[in-house]
Design brief:
about 30% helix, single chain, alpha+beta, 7 strands, globular, about 160 residues
């Protein structure tokens, strides 16, 4: 049990903090943690899924999942628009790639671990099937913000 608590304290909390800081400074809204739970490894989603892989002292990935309407509002704010973007087009996909890049860049807050990031991957679809490694715990943090809605952060990391 203490191993699970350490995993959340050492790995998850820094990503929660960088996500909150990003939304405060770049999206202009405050987010609240709704829940932190262990998630399954296979699930069906609608919307936008973006991830970045990690290697080095830990292997795995960090991902965000936005339902389409939430993604449109977040992308609009990220691009400095007052309105949500109309479509999930190439520019919107690039913006989501940059968002996960910034959030995953929070890995520098994980003291004592040498981590190397991959390039971001972004998927958009209705529905899409997400399959994560079965032998690595997946910790899901659900966030909510009145201005944009609810979204999820997935962290799937283990020591190398």
């Amino acid at each position: 049990m203490s191993e699970n608590i350490d995993l959340i304290k050492v790995i998850v909390k820094p990503f929660i903090q960088v996500t909150a800081d990003f939304f405060d400074s770049m999206i202009g809204c405050s987010i609240q943690v709704k829940s932190i739970t262990y998630a399954g490894h296979r699930f069906r989603e609608n919307g936008v899924y973006a991830n970045i892989g990690f290697g080095g002292d830990m292997m795995g990935m960090v991902a965000v999942i936005f339902h389409e309407n939430v993604a449109k509002r977040i992308i609009g704010r990220f691009l400095g628009e007052e309105e949500a973007v109309a479509d999930i087009d190439e520019d919107a996909i690039d913006a989501v790639g940059e968002i996960i890049n910034i959030i995953a860049g929070g890995k520098s807050y994980i003291d004592g671990y040498n981590l190397k990031m991959s390039l971001p991957s972004v998927l958009f679809g209705n529905p899409m099937m997400i399959a994560l490694p079965r032998d690595v715990p997946v910790i899901e943090t659900v966030f909510t913000a009145q201005e944009v809605g609810e979204f999820r952060l997935l962290i799937c990391l283990q020591l190398s």
